[in-house]
Structure to design on (97 residues):
C-alpha cells in the first residue's frame, strides 16, 4: 500500500517524523521512499508491532541529496496473504524540522 504525502525533505535539514496510530492491526513494515524514484536515493524503514504503541513513534529522517526529495510511505504487511487487502488509513504523521 503506497501512501502519498505532502512533504519534501530539504538538503542538510534533519527532521523528526512523529507517527500516531489507530487501533487497526498494522503489523509490518512502514517504509519512507522518494516519490517516483526507482533508485531509492532515500530510504528509511520503521518496523510496526501488531498492537498499538502506548504513544507516538518518532523517527529522525534526512537526505544528503542536493535538491529537495518528495517522500511518500509504503506499507508492507507482516503476512504476505494480507498484501492485497484494502486497509484504512491507520496512522497520521507530523514532520518537524
Amino acid at each position: 500500500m503506497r501512501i502519498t504525502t505532502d512533504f519534501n525533505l530539504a538538503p542538510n535539514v534533519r527532521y523528526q517524523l512523529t507517527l500516531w496510530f489507530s487501533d487497526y492491526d498494522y503489523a509490518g513494515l512502514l517504509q519512507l521512499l522518494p516519490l517516483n524514484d526507482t533508485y531509492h536515493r532515500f530510504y528509511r524503514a520503521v518496523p510496526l508491532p501488531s498492537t498499538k504503541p502506548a504513544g507516538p513513534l518518532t523517527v529522525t529522517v534526512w537526505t544528503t541529496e542536493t535538491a529537495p526529495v518528495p517522500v511518500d510511505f509504503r506499507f508492507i504487511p507482516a503476512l504476505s496473504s494480507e498484501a492485497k487487502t484494502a486497509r484504512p488509513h491507520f496512522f497520521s504523521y507530523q514532520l518537524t524540522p
Q: What stands out?
A: The two ends are 26 Å apart (CA to CA). The longest strand covers residues 69-77.
